[in-house]
Design goal:
By secondary structure, this protein is an all-beta fold. It contains no helices and 11 strands. The termini are far apart.
Length: 115
C-alpha cells in the first residue's frame, strides 16, 4: 500500500510563490514516477509536472518557466516550487506516484491565488 500526504498549499497574491511537498510512504520502491496534477473548480484534472526516479522532468506548457519539480529519493518526497503564481493557477493540487503502471493519489492541497 502507498500513502501520499501533501502539504504547503494556501492563499497567496498573484506574483507570489508557494512550495508544495508530498511525502510518500509504503511500497514505493525506487523505480517510479512522481508528480503533480491539479483540478480547478468545474474543470478536469490536468497534469502539472512529473519527475522520474532518474530526474527527468515534464511540465505542462502553462507552468513552464514558473514551476519547478524536484524529488528527494532518500526521503521519497516530491516538491513543486511555484513562482510567479497567477489567479488561473488556483486549484486543488494532487500528488501522484506511478509504480508498475499503477497510480496512487494524495488527497490534495488547495492553492488559491488572489488577483
Amino acid at each position: 500500500q502507498v500513502q501520499l500526504v501533501e502539504s504547503g498549499g494556501g492563499l497567496v497574491q498573484a506574483g507570489g510563490s508557494l512550495r508544495l511537498s508530498c511525502a510518500a510512504s509504503g511500497s514505493i520502491f525506487s523505480n517510479n514516477v512522481m508528480g503533480w496534477y491539479r483540478q480547478a473548480l468545474g474543470k478536469q484534472r490536468e497534469l502539472v509536472a512529473t519527475i522520474t526516479s532518474g530526474g527527468s522532468t515534464n511540465y505542462a506548457n502553462s507552468v513552464k518557466g514558473r514551476f519547478t519539480i524536484s524529488r528527494d529519493n532518500a526521503k521519497t518526497t516530491v516538491y513543486l516550487q511555484m513562482n510567479s503564481l497567477k489567479p488561473e493557477d488556483t486549484a486543488t493540487y494532487y500528488c501522484i506516484v506511478t509504480r508498475i503502471g499503477v497510480n496512487y493519489w494524495g488527497r490534495g492541497t488547495q492553492v488559491t491565488v488572489s488577483s
